[in-house]
Design goal:
The chain has 6 helices and 6 strands. By secondary structure, the chain is an alpha+beta fold. It has one domain. Strands 1-2-3-4-5-6 form a 6-stranded antiparallel beta sheet. Strand 5 and strand 6 form a beta hairpin.
């Protein structure tokens, strides 16, 4: 029996560059297209909702702010969603349920994805630059080389967008995900922090300014993404 030919290291490097590196570039391009779609649809949603709510209550604000190629904000009333596109490409861990599907078994390269994170912050946290305040991950959107997408998130975001094999990202998907994130954030209320956590404060803190007082503000004190009633996929 002849021994299996072992390729030189140089050939192996070229093979990996052709396979993985090229695929990752495809993922980056698809993720960038998806993020631009999110930006465009967020701006349209903000414009539409602002026109609809202004006659009802002029104090309600819907604003889209483009911060950079990787980040933009969508403000609605007392909440702000921050959309952030990670620059790197990731692979789903082998323990993830998607590895049990034919979608990954048929082509492992489909498991490489770009990620767009959606965070929920209190608008005042950003407005008053309260750096001790915390935002929460509402959802993260995975985009692969074929432009298919999968969402991990809370409540409706955890089950409406989990058909990775058939869901192709487009403007309609961007709009639906944004609307789901808005609905979840509006239903996620600010809780009063425990009395004992703020019963003492230093003179320097109180004199600095009320917005930057040494006390973190968040919708749920002690909240973690995994701790909500609905589990993450």
């Amino acid at each position: 029996m002849s021994k299996k030919e072992i390729k030189p290291a140089g050939e192996l490097i070229k093979d990996l560059l052709r396979e993985k590196s090229s695929i990752k570039q495809d993922v980056v391009e698809k993720t960038d297209i998806a993020f631009k779609s999110f930006k465009l649809q967020a701006a349209e949603i903000a414009k539409s909702l602002q026109a609809e709510v202004t006659p009802l209550d002029k104090r309600l604000k819907f604003e889209h702010t483009d911060k950079s190629a990787l980040l933009f904000n969508l403000r609605f009333a007392g909440d702000t969603l921050i959309f952030y596109r990670h620059t790197n490409v990731f692979q789903f861990e082998k323990s993830h349920p998607l590895w049990k599907t034919s979608y990954f078994h048929d082509d492992e390269m489909r498991s490489y994805c770009g990620i767009i994170n959606i965070f929920n912050f209190l608008t005042d946290s950003l407005l008053y630059n309260r750096q001790g305040d915390r935002g929460y991950l509402v959802a993260r959107v995975f985009i692969n080389k074929d432009g298919h997408y999968f969402v991990e998130g809370k409540r409706q975001l955890s089950y409406l967008y989990n058909d990775f094999a058939s869901q192709v990202f487009d403007d309609k998907a961007a709009t639906s995900i944004i609307e789901s994130a808005i609905l979840y954030s509006l239903d996620f209320d600010l809780y009063t922090p425990p009395y004992d956590s703020i019963k003492e404060v230093g003179v320097s803190d109180i004199l600095e300014q009320a917005a930057n007082i040494n006390m973190s503000t968040a919708k749920r004190m002690g909240f973690r993404f995994q701790s909500d009633d609905e589990t993450m996929m």
